């Protein structure tokens, strides 16, 4: 079985934990220090094989993960970072509700370039989230408005980080 390469993007405001999620998923490490991404960082990982719906054959994705810096303004260069992506994790920081508004706009921009791409929403920093529940409800509503679902993750504790990337892989296959 030859792995299928897929470009995926991580979308979200500054400091939501995009780089930490990639570091945890690809290298199984976490760093408390905040490092601003400038432009884009590209990582790759070979995922576990999965069976697509209505099939008996295993498929294995080789993700090219584009960790994209947060941009206040979009232009041709920033939109080109999205080009050719099969999917994206849309990341919000559960401790900063304003990041939910930001991911709506980012997802609209992403889908304007990749109309057929798949999205999975991620509410990150569940390990320090203390409510209110309305934030989770809003994240769920936002995900549903894009015809997808959400997971809560923690790059620090590893909680559901692997699940988020595997859910995106499964979504791309469907």
Summary of the model, kept short:
The chain is α/β, with parallel strands linked by helices. Helices cover 34% and strands 24% of the residues. Strand 4 (87-93), helix 3 (98-113) and strand 5 (118-124) form a beta-alpha-beta unit.
Which helices and strands, and how do they pair?
Layout: E1 4-11, H1 18-27, E2 40-46, E3 61-68, H2 76-82, E4 87-93, H3 98-113, E5 118-124, H4 133-145, E6 150-153, H5 161-173
Parallel strand pairs: 1-3, 1-4, 4-5, 5-6
Antiparallel strand pairs: 2-3
Q: So what's the CATH class?
A: Alpha Beta
* Tally of individual helices: 5
Q: Which bin fits the share of residues in helices?
A: 25-40%
Helix-strand sequence:
EHEEHEHEHEH
Domain module tally: 1
Tell me the radius of gyration.
Answer: 15 Å
Spatial gap, N to C terminus: 19 Å
Q: What's the count of strands?
A: 6
Mean pLDDT metric? 92
Main beta-sheet annotation = 6 strands, mixed
What low-confidence regions span 5 or more consecutive residues with pLDDT below 50? none
Beta-strand fraction estimate: 15-25%
* Class derived from helix and strand content: alpha/beta
Task: Assign the CATH topology.
Answer: Rossmann fold
Specify the CATH homologous superfamily: P-loop containing nucleotide triphosphate hydrolases
Q: Indicate the overall shape.
A: globular
Placed side by side, the strands forming the largest sheet appear as 2-3-1-4-5-6
